[in-house]
Specification:
mainly alpha; two-stranded parallel ribbon; single chain
């Protein structure tokens, strides 16, 4: 995946996704990390779509956190975070 060909906003989402993965002690970036990161830009399209669907972002992120807590935690990744197979498909 060539990140240089992505928009600045998309690069920011992936960067924040990586930070979330590190915060959760995950070695892989899962789609949940990306969705969570995408909701943080209040002017972005994801919060707008969720709002139009009547979905609370805080409830959405709570569900994402529940899902993320189920992934295995690793120690000593030394910043090596990979994209999961699901994320590559996304």
């Amino acid at each position: 995946m060539n990140f240089d060909k992505m928009t600045i906003k998309t690069q920011d989402v992936f960067s924040r996704s990586q930070q979330l993965a590190m915060d959760f002690s995950h070695q892989e970036i899962q789609p949940e990390h990306i969705f969570w990161a995408a909701t943080e830009d209040k002017k972005g399209i994801i919060p707008s779509v969720l709002k139009k669907l009547g979905v609370s972002i805080s409830n959405f992120n709570s569900e994402l956190q529940t899902s993320l807590n189920k992934y295995p935690k690793v120690q000593g990744t030394q910043g090596k975070i990979y994209l999961s197979a699901q994320t590559n498909q996304l």
